[in-house]
Structures are given as structure tokens and as C-alpha cells.
Design a protein that fits this description.
mainly beta, about 5% helix, four-stranded antiparallel beta sheet, about 45% strand, disordered N terminus
């Protein structure tokens, strides 16, 4: 998706003739959210569980504005529910609230009620917590606070809450075993989570049926494999400082301080594997979707790898590739500054090269 800020269609969608631009884009399971430079959030896509927060369960192909009191800085669109993070550190959630079968409490409101519009998570305010990041999985939510604490709520199956138990949590609770880790980034997939601490070490927990936790379980990985408490990811990452992490449906990736890219999961490798084809450049960011990965280098070039059946690799083909290939369709006079992967679609924001 390439959004032209000068187009009349986009100006109409913003309700402005150039005063406001596109700031961020977030691809979800089957929807997309864009945030403008004035902090407004617009959503579009599939909406079968009310995960777009527009007051109904109808799909929308046109951007719809989500009215919240404060500027939005992030949107996490999950397969069943979603969340917005505001500049003031508040979290708004909406969509499917869970069930006794699937797990309860993913919205963080203390019940399994569903909400069709953004609703503030009051428990964070009551506890004096301010959020700096949020991720929505299948039936669980992970939040990072400004104090470096990781909180989870929702379904406890497959250990996805990281607190040893597999019972559901109706409210956001701390992941106690990494409470002293000073977490600086979180990421999550369908039913697992990652937390990166200040020292550059990743901890992983949740479902591990395809090696997505990177803990090197080898033949022990099966459809029921899981980790109910955070485990450090070591292997070839040991001795390296990780600076960025990303998680897809059943795989994950990390960028080191030296600009190296490591990937794991998808039943391909169960521990971090160095993508040696990218050693000629310095990788600065990474994003993961459903069985594919995008890597951004210091020059604003994007490399893609994985399964390309929906065209997500941007290589003018639906074929798959086991190694990173440069995406050449981006105009030569532009550089990518931000990218986001959904399950089956991609969006990038570019700027003109100097």
C-alpha cells in the first residue's frame, strides 16, 4: 500500500487540504490503521468481531475515524480484538471480549464483555500505570509500561500470560519473572510474546508449536509445546546485544547492535538463525507477518523473505523465498522510513531522499 499525501482522495479522507499528513501505519490480522500527524486514527478492513471499533461488525473499505480524547500513537489490530495507545499512556480496547471456551479478559475490563467502540482500560489509571506499548494476540493482550514493566491479561492457555498458570486473567497483571528486567520493547504473535530488556536480551513465553519462542527445543517442539514463564533466547544471540524485535504469526526476528538479522520459528528453525545474505548491509528494523519477514537497512531499502502467496513480499510474484531479496518496486528517489506487516498485507511509509 502506498499512500500519496498529495492526492485529493487522501486529503478528503483527512478532511484537510494539506495541513495534516500521514504519521504512522499499522497492519493487523486483516485490517489496517493509520495515524495522522495530529494524532487521529483511521481504520479499515475486516471487522467480523468488531475489532475495528467502529460500532458495528461490518467490513469497511474506506478509512473510518476512531474518536478518542487524546492523540493516538499506536494501534494494535488483532484477529478478534484491538487496542489503541494514546500519547498520555492510556489504553483503549474494543472487539471480542472472550468466552469460557476461548478465554476471558483480553480487553482488560474485568469481564468477558465485548465492546464495539474504543473503551478506556480504567484499571491502568487506577493503578497509576502509563503504557508505552501494546500488543493484541489471539485472545490475550500484552502491555509495556513507561516504567519498563510488562503486563498481560486474557486467555492463559499455552502459557501466553507468562505467569506459570494457564488460568485466564480479567485484568492486566505483571509478568513477575521479568519484573526486574527493565523491558524496553515487546512484540507478540498469534499466541506468544517477546520482551526485550535494556541489556539486549530477549525473553519469550507462550505457544511454541513451531519453534517461535527460539528456545532451541529441537524435536521436543510439537503442537502442544509451550513455555508458561519467560525464557531467555540464547543460541547464536548469546553475547550479542539485540536492539529490535518483531513477531509474526508463528515466527519471530531480531536485529542486533551490529546490524545483523536473526530469525526463528515457522517449523524452519527452533533457535535464532543468522541471515547471512544480509551481512553486506546494516539492518536497522524488522517486521514479521504470517510466515514472512521484512528487513529495513540503514539506507531505507527493504528486503523480504518467506511465503509470498498473497504478494506480501513485494517481488512482483507470489512465490516464496528462503533468503532475503531486495524489494525493487519502491521508487528510486524514495527511502522507506516505516513499515508494518499484517497477516497477509504490508504497508510502508516513504520519504524523498535528500
Amino acid at each position: 500500500m502506498r499512500l500519496n499525501l498529495d492526492s485529493s482522495a487522501f486529503a478528503s479522507f483527512l478532511g484537510s487540504e494539506g495541513d495534516v499528513g500521514l504519521d504512522k501505519v499499522f497492519c493487523g490480522a486483516s485490517g489496517t490503521a493509520v495515524v495522522t500527524t495530529d494524532g487521529r486514527c483511521f481504520v479499515m478492513g475486516s471487522n467480523k468481531n468488531g475489532e475495528l471499533g467502529i460500532g458495528d461488525v461490518k467490513e469497511t473499505k474506506k478509512p473510518r475515524h476512531l474518536p478518542v480524547p487524546d492523540p493516538v500513537v499506536k494501534a494494535s489490530l488483532g484477529p478478534n480484538f484491538s487496542a489503541l495507545l494514546t500519547a498520555g499512556g492510556d489504553i483503549y480496547t474494543f472487539g471480542y471480549g472472550g468466552s469460557r471456551v476461548n478465554g476471558m479478559g483480553c480487553l482488560g475490563h474485568g469481564s468477558m464483555d465485548s465492546y464495539s467502540t474504543p473503551t478506556i482500560v480504567n484499571s491502568l489509571i487506577e493503578d497509576g500505570c502509563f503504557a508505552s506499548d501494546v500488543h493484541c494476540g489471539e485472545y490475550s493482550m500484552t502491555v509495556l509500561t513507561t516504567e519498563g514493566e510488562v503486563l498481560t491479561c486474557g486467555s492463559g492457555s499455552y502459557g501466553r500470560l507468562g505467569n506459570l498458570e494457564t488460568i485466564d486473567q480479567l485484568y492486566l497483571e505483571p509478568v513477575e519473572l521479568i519484573a526486574a528486567e527493565d523491558t524496553v520493547q515487546i512484540a507478540g504473535g498469534f499466541a506468544f510474546s517477546l520482551a526485550l530488556n535494556k541489556g539486549g536480551i530477549i525473553h519469550a513465553w507462550g505457544r511454541n508449536n513451531e519453534g517461535q519462542l527460539g528456545t532451541g527445543m529441537g524435536l521436543a517442539v510439537d503442537m502442544y509445546a509451550m513455555e508458561s514463564i519467560p525464557r531467555p533466547i540464547e543460541g547464536d544471540l548469546e553475547g550479542r546485544k539485540v536492539t529490535r524485535i518483531a513477531a509474526g504469526y508463528t515466527h519471530a526476528a531480531a536485529v542486533t547492535s551490529n546490524g545483523e538479522l536473526f530469525t526463528w520459528g515457522m517449523n524452519y528453525t527452533h533457535e535464532p538463525k543468522l541471515e547471512s545474505n544480509l551481512l553486506h548491509t546494516k539492518i536497522v528494523d524488522v517486521a514479521c507477518g504470517q510466515n514472512y519477514t521484512l528487513a529495513l537497512d540503514e539506507n531505507g531499502r527493504v528486503y523480504s523473505m518467506g511465503k509470498g502467496k498473497t504478494g506480501v513480499l513485494g517481488l512482483a510474484s507470489t512465490k516464496s523465498t528462503a533468503y532475503p531479496i531486495l524489494v525493487e518496486g519502491i521508487p528510486a528517489d524514495e527511502r522507506v522510513v516505516e513499515m508494518s506487516c499484517g497477516w497477509a498485507h504490508v504497508a510502508c511509509i516513504t520519504e524523498l531522499k535528500e
